[in-house]
Amino acid sequence: MNNSNSSSNNNITSYPAETTLDERDGRYLRKAIVWSHAARRRGNRPFGSVIVSAAGEVLAEAGNSNAETGDCTAHAEINALRALPGRKLTREELAGATLYASGEPCVMCAGAIFWSNIGRVVFGIDAERLRVFRGERQDQRDAELSCRDVFLASPHAIECIGPALIDEASAAHDGAWKT
Ligand SMILES: [Zn+2]
Prior knowledge:
Layout: H1 3-10, H2 23-41, E1 48-52, E2 58-63, H3 66-69, H4 76-82, H5 91-95, E3 98-103, H6 107-116, E4 120-125, H7 127-134, H8 147-152, E5 159-161, H9 166-171
Parallel strand pairs: 3-4, 4-5
Antiparallel strand pairs: 1-2, 1-3
The protein binds zinc ion.
């Protein structure tokens, strides 16, 4: 611990406002949050993701598996996206799908979501609030580029909703970044 540690956290004066979800989005985001707890119980960072079709079918769901696999790209969103090909979905079907993520997608996952052609993202805790849990340890810091900046650079529209259910999405992170 050093002095910059607490002061940098305290310097964050405004966080993104919470978005209120409808029943359906709330249901699936809570499912992603359940996966975040499951990932933590298995020794991974607490993130979960669920991909749902326009008709409401769960197409893929996954937790983060960085620690289990040693794969730095094994984020929940990537793991869920990698479960999709067996579904043989058209680009139109993917455009109508929603990816739910317990935490705001990082720049890598935002890029993968772009390539997937998925047209809608709903996330729980935002990157700014997550940084308080991550602390200032250099190896736990994220690249500070919002997923929205990646989506805005996309030639096809990617709707992005969040942060949402912040308290529920935060719970899995409490005490999870100490080691
Ligand atoms: Zn990621």
